Predict the 3D structure of the following.
Amino acid sequence: MKLRMVLLAIGLMVGSMGAHASEKAAHWEYKGKAGAAHWSDLEPDFASCKLGKEQSPIDIRGAKKTKLAPIGFHYTPGAAEELNNGHTIQVNLASGGTIDLADGEYKLVQFHFHTPSEEKIKGKNYPLVAHLVHKSADGKLAVVAVLFKVGKENVALKHVFDSLPAKAGDKTALDGGIDLTSILPAAQGYYAFKGSLTTPPCSEGVRWQVLKAASEISPKQLAAFRKLYPMNARPVQALNGRVIEVSE
């Protein structure tokens, strides 16, 4: 019971970190009158979706080769609960470990999926992306994006895709927890840029790291997610002069 309360608290705390807005916010979707083109019209707090100059996702082109420090991944196995939040499948983690970036340590708090990948690489989408959301002690956000191509079954995510909650608001405890180290590609070079949440309220100031190499999921796993969410990706946004760095 105590563990479940911890997971619930984490879900409430990070629910708006790129996965969905608060329950009090206006209803939004990806298409139609409440779709991405109209988010800024739905509520004053969504103004950044239109007025922001560092919005995500982006089409990654012309990246500048830089001696970026490797991301220090320190993920650990831990209890997890997956939630269908009405916009995606989100997995909340009680204690999933941390990453080290140039400006310090960030704690992994949740991850969620988009299909197709929201970010593009030279105009190309991937079938799926996982956004791994992290938060620093002083409240800053950092996202690591793991792209997926269709191939072998992803064993590390098997329990996630085998038990996807079918309806908005449904939750499923992942018995045995999850260790995200196993979903990372072997090569961990990455693109880095300043960005935002990719859903309302589209808040900026988010550090983005998109891994260059893709991991794999099976056709069955992709189909299971797309049965619930056939498309939940925001269109790419203007770069507005931002510099995209890429590790050498």
